[in-house]
Amino acid sequence: MKIELASSYGFCYGVKRAIEIAEEHKDSFTYGPLIHNKDEINRLKDNFNIGLVENIDEIENDNAVVIRTHGIPKDELALLKKQKNKIINATCPYVTTPQNIVAKMSKEGYSIVIFGDKNHPEIKGVVSYAENANDAFVVLTSEEVKTLPLSSKVALVSQTTKKPEDFLKIVNTLILTQREVRVFNTICNATFENQDAAAALSKKADVMIVIGGKHSSNTKMLHSISLKDCPESYLIENEEELQAEWFKEKTLCGISAGASTPDWIVQNVIDKIQKIS
Ligand code: SF4
Description:
By secondary structure, the protein is of the alpha/beta class. It is built from 10 helices and 12 strands. It has helices spanning about 15-25, 40-50, 75-80, 95-105, 120-125, 140-145, 165-175, 190-205, 215-230, 265-275, and strands at about 1-5, 30, 50-55, 65, 85-90, 110-115, 135-140, 155-160, 180-185, 205-210, 235, 250-255.
């Protein structure tokens, strides 16, 4: 069986940058996971003594705190500053962009619509930058948009990992119902590149392995894209989850990996597939 890697996969610019920033700050803490990958977080702990705190109350005043790629809500950042924590900001610049747009447009009196998952950390952060919480709405479907009490001026941003086709549906609905709509395409290119490459590879592969965190939206998206043309697509976090029967009588195994998956995990998976297939 042949193994082929997608032409674009794995770590994106924002994740590479966050890891480099964290590695430069040994003995610090990240508030929430730095990236969606347990194995990489464990490596940072073992090699650089970078701890993880899940709750802001656990952060002591003298802790150095690395802000994760997805960012954190504005009030929590303000609290850390008030506590005089040393703040090391590893928020991806592509996430800072919608935060800044929301702050600026809501100051100018625009209703804010955010296309994304309201429970995702990135979106919790982005929505927190609205001046008026009652005039900022997080939606997933155009049906939801139709029910919103929006002002005549609307600014729209997207979660970085969303599909452009789905974003366009929200744009279309808003344009038909509102007088003024400012659309900011804040979807990240890294997401497109990995998605297009996974789609192309899954058309010819008879088994696809997508490697990444089970809670990572961009990994789950790669998996659902792969499933369309390759029903035998599996999402795994690391090589331990591989099963030999997936590869029986297969000729081409495609491999893709989410934006938070380090190359060393991808290599471990390839080595194990070669051993068991
Ligand atoms: S996927 Fe894009 S937005 Fe998300 S961390 Fe990577 S570069 Fe930044």
